[in-house]
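For this section, I looked closely at a protein sequence along with its fold in token form, which I now present.
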Amino acid sequence: MLDRKSLTKNILQDDSNAATGLINKDVFTNTKTNKDFGTQAGTLTSTNVKDAQAAWKQARKELNLKGTTKIKLLTFDSGTQRTTAQYIQGQVHKYLPKLKIELTILPVSNFIKDATAGKFGIYLVSWGADYPDPSSLLSLFASDSGNNWGSYKSKQYDALLDKANGADATKTTARWNDLEDAQKILLKDNGISPLFASKLTYLKNPKLKGMVTNTLEGGFYYANAYLEK
């Protein structure tokens, strides 16, 4: 139901890319084959308003919902998160009758506290990889992950992550396939709904040398930086 391309192009307008999966293109590369994880996985997200409306109609019938149903959307206070939350709210109100999204936008520390405690109907968060491997993001949704705030559980998903980090840990191609299959299961189950991948945008003095950019987390390292005379 959420049009990711419209969100990035018309709402955010910050050069972000519409998400094709949890892991987008040009983030992680297979060191053996030099193939990109996101490109190899293909597009795992879609937009279908009619399917969303049919699912909501069926849910109302099965749950015997009467009147307006309210759902709390929890996120933290940043320009991008607030704008995206408002976009989600607007699309839901436009296409899904009798469903009201109530926004709760908190400082980051309060957001994490409430998200960890499960005080939400839906939560919206942005996340960067801690190390250059797909498992950095996929491990967030393992059943026993402390960051699995939505309580997603899948024995098949967990088994693939365990296999990638265990039996196939030294088998580059097999491990890669395990992680790709895990992502497919996560998206097929609607365990999460990726919306966009942010890009790092900054201005840099051409005389500044030795600065290292962390493309995963968006940080900068100046330990060896200097200005060229």
